[in-house]
Design goal:
By secondary structure, the chain is of the alpha+beta class. The protein contains ten helices and five strands, in the order ααααααββααβββαα. Strand 1 and strand 2 form a beta hairpin.
Length: about 240
């Protein structure tokens, strides 16, 4: 049995994160929210955790309760979710191709890149594109920092989840990460893709991360759509990542 996420799995996980964020903004506990919607508490927990598929009536109950359709600033695109349920999404048939992503985007200087220890989440390496985007002087300013100092809590949870359950040669589904900046300013959102590699010298597991900013997503989106499965659905979920 593998832990590869299908497109539906990825959408359910994103939907659960949206429910959690919106519920907290409303000041509600999981128990209170479940009671108000007349949904079993344990069932609701699993929905927020992205661990269970949804009946259409439950889905519509959640959407109505949290007013997700009418929230123009919501990070979750409900129309894209419905397209997936109806089987009408136009995702790429290609498998994730890490080497193609690395060779073109990292080696070509189009994407940020971090290498992080799976155990401890400290930075081992960063490329110039990333530390330049974050407003730090050099790679030395990032090396040995904990990942929590660089990215938001939600992004960190996604990284930790991947490190706990990855399979050999598995490439993560794309997800959004917000970087903290130096000096402190507005967070910088980017698309992240991960892969764990075992170092031959000492057998240590290192997490390799590629980050795509708005400019790259706009200029190189056609290439990403060809080599990264789930890319088109990701961009439908996060229209705020389109270049402005």
């Amino acid at each position: 049995m593998t832990h590869d996420l299908t497109e539906m799995d990825a959408f359910l996980k994103e939907f659960g994160l949206t429910l959690k964020t919106t519920r907290k903004q409303m000041g509600l506990s999981q128990v209170t929210a479940a009671q108000n919607m007349k949904i079993d508490y344990r069932h609701y927990q699993n929905i927020e955790g992205g661990k269970i598929n949804l009946r259409l009536d439950t889905l519509m109950k959640l959407v109505k309760f949290y007013n997700l359709v009418n929230k123009n600033d919501a990070p979750f695109n409900f129309d894209a979710f419905l397209q997936l349920i109806n089987g009408s999404s136009s995702g790429s048939d290609h498998h994730n191709n890490w080497d193609a992503l690395y060779d073109h985007f990292v080696q070509g200087g189009h994407a940020g890149y971090l290498v992080v220890r799976c155990d401890g989440k400290t930075v081992v390496k960063a490329n110039e594109r990333l530390f330049g985007s974050l407003g730090v002087g050099s790679q030395r300013d990032l090396v040995s920092q904990h990942l929590a100092q660089l990215i938001n809590d939600e992004g960190l949870r996604r990284v930790e989840d991947f490190c706990r359950g990855y399979q050999p040669d598995e490439v993560s589904s794309p997800f959004i990460v917000s970087f903290k900046t130096q000096p402190p300013a507005y967070p910088i959102p980017m698309m992240a893709v991960l892969k764990v590699k075992k170092e031959n010298s000492n057998g240590e597991d290192l997490l390799h991360c590629i980050f795509f900013d708005r400019k790259t997503l706009e200029e190189e989106g056609h290439r990403l759509a060809d080599i990264l499965s789930g890319y088109k659905q990701f961009m439908e979920l996060y229209p705020q990542l389109k270049a402005v």
